[in-house]
Design a protein that fits this description.
Strand content: 15-25%
Radius of gyration: 21 Å
Helix content: 25-40%
Number of strands: 15
Strand order of the largest sheet: 5-6-7-11-12-13-14-15
Shape: globular
Distance between the termini: 26 Å
Structural class: alpha/beta
């Protein structure tokens, strides 16, 4: 990274709406010399208990308590006076100052949404001031060579992303193509084949979930996986060769009284592991995400061992992009892949630490969007700049998702 100091001239914020029509925060950062940039932050529906805390107003008479005016106020009344006029030698220096100003481990004072908005806006403005791309700036933070990730794209959704018609949250398709351009073309064919299949099966077009996945009334999770394979075949592709699958189980959300209430069955931890092993043996899965409850530490190593040589054991709610939880999971061999979400941890530098820890352990890294997204496209630059193995954005039917895919296309074309 460059060693010259970067001086913040002005910070301001605005409450905007995310893809679910709920408020979020956008930060505007102006550096010395008048260079300005902005960034907006997402919000999740399926959240882990160890995520950094986003700040909401709690006023039931406005956005049902989900307003972000307090977050805006914190940025403008607390962070701006403290940071305007200050100079920083690096992204890490700025992010460390943000953590100091918040003063809590979970960002509950000023809000993780507030801090991340500043962290990202500063990053984008600094990249602009240095006349480099945002992904180059990101890659320098980690000291890695940029690399294009494989796509994981929502096809069918249930759980908290839809109407909980099935227990699992998402079944995704993972194209095995040489480029983002070719990947999106094959994804389109599978998605349309799936939509046509739902019309034939249910007599109507399926409604879509938060991230654009189709959300028909399947009877159980196996049926979702079977229909995903059928859609791949109807599109003229070979499951397990030209197109794979991934599953976001989000099992913490159907874990009740020490049992997994999966599609009408009540399963123990051992039975849940057996079920997931059967899925991985039967279907062409590249990963199973959050297959167990986020605090079932004693079972996660068994799950990883059971899925070994079949697919990745991917931690989302389990890890929450939290360096402390990642270290514990590495030590106990509890999983072998990290789902990285910056707003789970609160600043860009803390996300970089999480990514670094995962890489040092030999894990795969999946950079992920959230169910409540904005049309900001920084996530695409992050996935490319940090050389993620996969990127998880959502489906291909909504503008807040397409912004990221289109940015990947732009990046790809610039390297042709």
């Amino acid at each position: 990274m460059a060693t010259e100091l970067t001086r913040i001239e002005k910070l301001s914020a605005l409450e905007i709406l995310d893809s679910r029509g709920r408020p979020t925060i956008k930060c505007f950062c102006t550096l010395e010399g008048g260079i300005s940039a902005s960034a907006s932050v997402p919000s999740g529906a399926s959240t882990g208990g160890s995520e950094a805390m986003e700040l909401r107003d709690g006023n039931p008479n406005r956005f049902r308590g989900l307003g972000c005016l307090n977050a805006v106020s914190n940025l403008q009344q607390v962070l701006a006076p403290a940071l305007e006029g200050e100079s920083f030698s690096s992204q890490a220096a700025l992010d460390h100052r943000l953590q100091e100003l918040d003063g809590t481990s979970d960002k509950s004072n000023l809000g993780a949404n507030t801090l991340l908005a500043v962290s990202l806006a500063f990053a984008r403005a600094t990249a602009c001031s240095r006349k480099i791309s945002l992904h180059q700036y990101f890659s320098e933070i980690l000291g890695v060579k940029p690399r294009m990730p494989r796509l994981t794209v929502n096809l069918f959704s249930g759980g908290k992303h839809a109407g909980e018609q099935v227990s699992i949250q998402d079944v995704l398709i993972v194209p095995n193509a040489e480029s983002i351009k070719d990947s999106l073309a094959s994804v389109y064919e599978v998605y349309q084949s799936a939509a046509d299949g739902m019309l034939e099966r249910f007599g109507m077009r399926a409604l879509t979930a938060d991230e654009g996945g189709l959300a028909p009334s399947f009877e159980n999770s196996i049926q979702v996986l079977e229909e995903a394979c059928s859609a791949i075949e109807r599109a003229g592709l070979k499951p397990g060769q030209e197109m794979h699958l991934a599953v976001d189980v989000a099992s913490s959300h159907f874990y009740k009284e020490s049992k997994y209430e999966l599609d009408g069955e009540s399963l123990t931890g051992q039975e849940m592991i057996q079920t997931l092993n059967e899925w991985a043996s039967r279907f062409p899965l590249v990963s199973i995400e959050d297959g167990l409850h986020e605090e079932a530490w004693e079972f996660w190593p068994e799950l990883t061992q059971a899925l070994d040589n079949l697919c990745l054991t991917l931690g989302d709610d389990f890890l929450c992009t939290n360096p402390g939880r990642i270290r514990r999971a590495v030590k106990s061999s509890a999983c072998n892949a990290l789902l990285l979400k910056l707003n789970q941890v609160g600043t860009l530098s803390e996300g970089a630490e999480a990514c670094r820890l995962a890489r040092e352990a030999g894990w795969k890294v999946v950079v992920s969007a959230r169910s409540g997204e904005t049309e900001d496209d920084w996530l695409a630059d992050l996935a490319f700049g940090w050389a993620a193995d996969y990127i998880k954005v959502g489906s291909i039917t909504q503008s807040e998702r397409l912004a990221k895919y289109n940015r990947l296309l732009e990046i790809e074309s610039s390297y042709d």
